[in-house]
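Give me the fold.
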Amino acid sequence: GQFAYHLARVGIYALLGALVGGVGSLLGLGGSLNDFAGGVSVLLGIGVVLLALFYLGWLPLGLAAGAGAWLNRGMSWALRLGGMGGAALLGALNGLLPCGLVYSALLVAASLGGPFPAAMGMIVFGIATVPALVMVGIGAGALGTPVRQCMARLAGFLMMGAGLQLSLRGLAALSLVSHLQLGGVMLW
C-alpha cells in the first residue's frame, strides 16, 4: 500500500511538473526566477497562509471548505475503497493538496526549460519526500490522540511559515525585499 500511495503521489508531482515546465518554457521562464515567477510565488504564499489560518480555525471555513469538498470526498472514498487501488488514489489526491513546499518546487520546475526536465525535477523532489512521510506515518500511528492534536496544530503553524517564506521569496525576486541568507542557506 505504501508503495502504491507514494508512486501515485510522485506521479502527480511529475504531471504537475510537466505542466508547469511546459507553461514556463512558453513564457520564457527558463533558467531564472523572473518577475512573473516572483509574483506567482507571492500569490501562492498568501494562499498557503490563508489555508493555514483556515486549518488552525482562525478564519471561518466558508468557501474554503466548499472548494476542497471534492478532495475530501475523494479521500474518504479512497480510504473506504482500501487495498492497493485505494492507496494509489489516496496518494494521487494527496499530490493535489495545497503545500508550500510543493509550490516552491513547482516554481523551480517552471524554470527548468521544458516539460521533461520539470517532470524529472518533480520526481526527484517527490522521491526525496518519501522517507520523511513514511516516518511521519509510522510515528503518527504510535502517538496518542492528545499528541496528534498538538502535532496537527504545529503543522498549521509550519504551513503558515512555509507560506510566509514562499511570499518573501517572491518579494525578493521582485526586488521588493532583500534576500536573506543564513550561512550557506538561502532563506528567501
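The longest strand covers residues 181-182.
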